[in-house]
Amino acid sequence: MPRLLKLTAVLLALITLGSAAALAGRGPQPPPPLPPGVSPHWTPAPGNHRVAYAPNIPADLFWYGNRYYYYHGGYWYKGKSLYGRWHLVRHLPRGIYRLHRAAFKHGRPW
Fold first, then answer.
1. Burial letters for 42-75: b for 16+ Cβ neighbours within 10 Å, e otherwise?
2. What is the pTM of this model?
3. Are residues 23 and 88 in contact, defined by beta-carbon separation less than 8 angstroms?
4. Distance of alpha carbon 59 from alpha carbon 105, whole angstroms
């Protein structure tokens, strides 16, 4: 019986650590926002000219405060590089929330 309790405790700890890693942005990576061979043409975004967006990219991709923000599959990600590592975003910067719906390819997600 004590062995079963230890095994259960270890399994619960592993599950908790795995969930925490996913919430911290270490979970699965989204697909790259850039099609192969395409460079973004950064333009001031409608609704907030301190945010740049790339109208030539088919993804909702933004540059703000020295970070890239990428909306994919119902989640926001941020990264220091266009090529990854992407981290889940818990709280978007206010500048992204102020964007006009014209800045989004698939409609504003809120």
1. beebebbeebbbbeebebbbbbbeeebbbbbeee
2. 0.74
3. yes
4. 7
Whole-angstrom CA distances from 88 to 4, 6, 44 are: 35, 33, 24
Range list of β-strands (E), 1-110: 43-45, 48-53, 60-64, 67-72, 75-79, 87-88
Both structure tokens of 103? 């800045």
Contact 79, 86 (CB under 8 A): yes
Is 16 or 51 the better-scoring residue by pLDDT? Answer: 51
Name, in order, each residue with C-beta under 8 angstroms of 101's C-beta and a sequence gap of 6 or more: 107, 108
50 touches 94 (CB < 8 A): no
Alpha-carbon gap, residue 15 to 91, rounded angstroms? 24
- pLDDT tens digits for 34-62? 988 999 999 999 999 999 999 999 999 99
